[in-house]
Amino acid sequence: MLITLLLISLLAFLAFQIVPGDPTTKLLGSEYSPERAASLREEMGLDRNVLVRYVDWLTGFITGDLGVSYSYGMGVDQVMEGKGAVTAALSLLAWVLVIAISLPLGVALARWQGGRLDRACVAMNQVFMAIPPFFLGILFTYVFGLVLKLFVPGGFISPQQSFWGFLGYLTFPALAIAIPKAAMVTKLLRSSILNQMGEDYVRTAYSRGNSRWGVIRGHVLRNAILPVVTFVAMTLADIVAGSIIVEQVFALPGLGRLLLASIGNRDYPVVQCIVVIIAFIVVFMNYLADVVTQYIDPRVRLA
Amino acid sequence: MKIKHNKNFTAGAVITAFMLTVILIGMVWTPYDPNAMSGKEKMLSPCLAHPLGTDNFGRDILSRVVEGAGATFIIAAATVAIGLVAGLVIGGLTGYYGGWLDEVVMRFNDAIAAFPSILLALVLIALFGSGKYNIILALGLLFIPSFARVVRAEVARQKSLDYVAGAKLMGAGDMRILFLHILPNIVPVLLPSVAIGFNNAVLAEASMSYLSVGVQPPDASLGRMLNEAQGYLLTAPWYALSTGVAIILLVLGFGLLSEGMGGKYGAA
């Protein structure tokens, strides 16, 4: 896990070193002269070896010194202040929604396989998976924001003003991110349960007088949930990425907008930092999935 | 090749055929010039002359949706082509020869695959700059690992089969075995991943263009148009709706096709 993290951070760092164009050109603007550029490079430490700078940056990153933004002229941590919380809250809310929608639904569909609900959901599933989250966001803006006036499009309440208002504003963006993912997880859980239903232990459980529901709840679910746990953990990465786009749709002041602005400004310290933070989340979630899987299924040993 | 002829496959084939026909016709003929502006006909509601209405510059939305779907389709196809060709070479060679290079390449692949592709694409765009060709390049590069992984696993499985041993006894060279004997046999496994890859590419292109780092105005692309349409949601909801539905149909068609071919949707 540590090696993956190091590799990603090294790649992220190197990628922004080979970019053509020197940050000093942009920083100095019209006051550019070769001498001033050279002294600024020295001041910023850009004249040193790439690996030395990487180690420097990494130790800084770990100890909480995230570097200085080129375009804002202040620390990256100050630039990101408050924005990280918005993205984190949005992603977590979407993630909880995915689980809250898909777990009961997937189990219910498998329980009443072939029933009306099952057939309707299986047919609709492909459509929901095909909707890009940002289009869903636009639809929500139109239906719930403009027609039903449940929220003000482009509006935002910071958590300091009102925590519940803040959550309220995040609900629709979170739903827009969550629904396509929930469709995938529901489908996976349903087919995972149905796959298990043909196993020998299921027949044994039936022969002991269990109902279909009893078999699923008491025996199948524990086995069927394993691949779903891994998948759900992996979706968090996609959800974070999805929230970067959906923030744009709902004009939420999160990391996504900062990232896009920084890409536009070629503000690499900020971009680099956001990328590494998201990488960290991804790797951590994968690790967590392994731990949870082992807890559910003691046969799995952590490598 | 075993294709289950089921409802999914049929529905997917119908939708895809419909979209492809529309796109092909759009390449030679559209009802109006997609970029022709008209001051008198701004923001018309859908009517006989303009079935999907006109946008804020008086451009015919139907023509733009058709043109945009074509652009999105071409970008997605080019992306998949880059990913597929490079994936075939990398996955084929590493799967066939194995060894330490295989280990290194696969660890590298894992690191990239674990990362949300949109984010990586944004990073690459930050490096290359925005624009149509850079999008193709960035997304194409990102699609290599997933294809390489599928190809590698399948090649590694096939190379221990009898027909490969037979070809070796006949004195066939490694390259001949790999590309003439093994490659045709992995096509059935590869097809669903191509369909999934195509969908991911369509969604990625639409997202990037929506974020204004992809196709640049005045060119039409579905994501680009959604971005423009969002500003006129209240006055012209059909603009956003028709564009969004075009994306959904493209993705849905290929999704159903891949489902029908037995691929695992969404697990690319």
List the helices and strands and how they pair.
The complex is a heterodimer of chains A (303) and B (268).
Chain A: H1 2-15, H2 23-28, H3 34-44, H4 50-62, H5 76-80, H6 83-111, H7 116-130, H8 133-147, H9 163-196, H10 200-207, H11 212-250, H12 255-265, H13 268-296
Chain B: H1 7-28, H2 61-97, H3 99-113, H4 117-128, H5 132-158, H6 162-169, H7 174-210, H8 222-230, H9 237-260
Helix pairs in contact in B: 1-2, 1-9, 2-3, 2-5, 2-7, 2-8, 2-9, 3-5, 4-5, 5-7, 6-7, 7-8, 7-9, 8-9
Structure explained in plain terms:
- The complex is a heterodimer of chains A (303) and B (268).
- Chain A is an all-alpha fold and 303 residues long.
- In chain A, 76% of the residues lie in helices and 0% in strands.
- In chain B, α1 (7-28) crosses α9, α2 (61-97) packs antiparallel against α3 and α2 packs across α8.
- The A-B interface holds A 4, 7-8, 11-12, 15-16, 18-19, 126-127, 129-132, 134-135, 138-139, 141-142, 146, 153, 184, 187, 231, 234, 237-238, 240-242, 244-245, 248-249, 259-260, 263, 266, 268, 271, 275, 278-279, 282-283, 286 and B 8, 107-108, 110-111, 114-119, 122-123, 125-127, 199, 203, 206-207, 210-211, 213, 226, 229-230, 233-234, 237, 240-241, 244, 247-248, 251-252, 255-256, 259, 265-267.
